[in-house]
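Comment thread on ticket #2218

A.B. wrote:
> Attaching the input chain for the structure job we discussed in standup.
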Amino acid sequence: MPTKHRRETEARVQNATIPAEETGVAAFIASMPDGYRERFDAVAMRDHAGIVSRRKGAAAHAEVWCALPYGGAIACVVADDRPGLLSLISAALVVHTLDVGAAQAYGRTTPLGTTEVVDFFWLQRSAAGGSPRVEPSEVASMGKLLDALLRGRVDLDAVVKLGALAERPARLEDATRIRFDRGSSKIVTELTIETPDRPGLLFAVTRALFNQRVQIVRSDVRTVSSRAQDKFDIVEFDGGRVTPARLDALEAELRHAIEALGKAPTG
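C.D. wrote:
> Ran it. Output below, let me know if you need it in another format.
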């Protein structure tokens, strides 16, 4: 049985006036998971459907969905799902001196049968950036860089070097907490990371997971009082459960990546 919230959301969708030319809107809404429909109203979902449709044949597409106070913005990023995607998105954001305050990720099956992710990022300017305002042109540029990364037209290591030019704070690894929880699922391992927020943190974490051949199937990224509180559901690349024997190595990789943010770049 659907929840009361979901029924109310579906009623708003049904009562909303959707122009005839927007024939893909209803199909887009129906393809999205319950959690998405419970969080957004009909107007927002119509906006998102438009962003998704403008991806067309690109490997990735990004737009500002709405502006936030003090110059921030919520960006919508659309791409086919693949291992390491969140790491590539994070790298593209770092190059554009954009920090992630929160993130929501949703997956859907397209009419072609592929799995497409529709991700939302609450963005702000990093300490290494200039004007605090997040410009729509910057988000569009970030989407084009992500497209080039996904197509192999740009080397990730070159992008990482650009991101390494960002100003880094003092070492903060001692204040980092990493926890793994098996939870109720037989497959998914829940990873929780609490650490002081700083530029490039999401990229460092997601790249460390990718280096360990771990796939993120769900994420909840947020910053509270300048402290990141990030949660990830993870599995192996082949979809299997991460074995207990792997957790020590995974934690070591994560701590090394976070510690590296507090060191000046070399080379």
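A.B. wrote:
> Thanks. Noting for the ticket: Residues 1-42 form one domain.
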